[in-house]
Amino acid sequence: MSYKRLLFENKDQIVTLKLNRADKLNAFDLLMFEDISKAIDSISRDRSIRAVVVGAEGSDFSTGLDIKSVMVNKQAGFKLLWKWWPTQSNLAQKMSVGWRRLSVPVIMAIHGRCWGAGMQTALGGDFRFASPDASLAIMESRWGLIPDMGGSLALREITAMDRALDWTMTSREIPAMEALEQGLISKIEPDPMAAAQAYAQTLAERSPDALAGIKKLYQYSWHHNDGRLLAKEWLLQWKMFLGKNRGIAVQKAQGKSDRQFVPRAL
């Protein structure tokens, strides 16, 4: 299978996948979403795969959405948000939920900026290794939106609500050390990709059935109402996407307008 936005390697039954849009700081356009979705499907069908490492080319893991290609284009937005049933994941939510639903361990190797869509994707990993200079951010409120890529499933497991509210409402950068202290990342490593690949090798020495069973068991124990959360996230985001304040937020973030927000719709 060929990819336009990813580098995909399967070596010794360990998949290494890298976001490959370095000239755009690995910003997510529709092709990036679609390629990641295809890669997740491909991995899920191959029962010989033992572990997955996800990293990125260039200076940053990802700076988030490609605003011009996704946010300004309503058709692209509809493709990301569309789903047949509220409790299923749409294309946007699959960036995080898809990794969680794989039966193999997924390790995220984060360096540089891991913002917005990048952070939502990273939250889908079972483990997150980050470089000392990495920064994370939940950027959606900057654009007048709520986080809508399924990362809320992980946030509810790893942090207190007041911290999640702070990060999400302010969209502030979270340095690697704070992220480690608050459980957003698993480790700080000088070379997160090398550390992730070494850890994947260690996991590959264990029974694949045991690893799959442990992942399914713990996910059931930690959270068994994922569908309800995905449905709520989806319904709220549609209200954001169709509302007047979303457009105002985009214009303000781009420095194109100083319009005041209209009274809230929720």
In short:
The protein has 266 residues and is of the alpha/beta class. The protein has 12 helices and 9 strands.
Question: Overview of this structure, please?
Answer:
This protein is α/β, with parallel strands linked by helices. It has one domain (6-208): 2-enoyl-CoA Hydratase, Chain A, domain 1 (Alpha-Beta Complex), CATH 3.90.226.10. The protein is built from 12 helices and 9 strands. Strands 1-2-3-4-6-9 form a 6-stranded mixed β-sheet, sandwiched between helices. The chain has a 3-stranded mixed β-sheet with strand order 5-7-8. Strand 1 and strand 2 (14-19) form a beta hairpin. Helix 1 runs parallel beside helix 4 (91-101). The longest helix is centred in the last third of the chain and has 17 residues, at 226-242.
Distance between the termini: 44 Å
Order of helices and strands: EEHEHHHEEHEEHHEHEHHHH
Write down the Rg: 18 Å
Query: What is the number of helical segments per DSSP (H or I, 4+ residues)?
Result: 12
Pfam family, one: ECH_1
Family: Belongs to the enoyl-CoA hydratase/isomerase family.
Protein name: Enoyl-CoA hydratase/carnithine racemase
GO molecular function: isomerase activity
Describe the protein's topology.
Elements lengths: L5 E6 L2 E6 L10 H16 L5 E6 L10 H4 L3 H8 L9 H11 L4 E5 L2 E3 L1 H6 L4 E4 L4 E3 L14 H7 L2 H10 L3 E2 H6 L5 E2 L3 H13 L3 H15 L3 H17 L1 H10 L13
Parallel strand pairs: 2-3, 3-4, 4-6, 5-7, 6-9
Antiparallel strand pairs: 1-2, 7-8
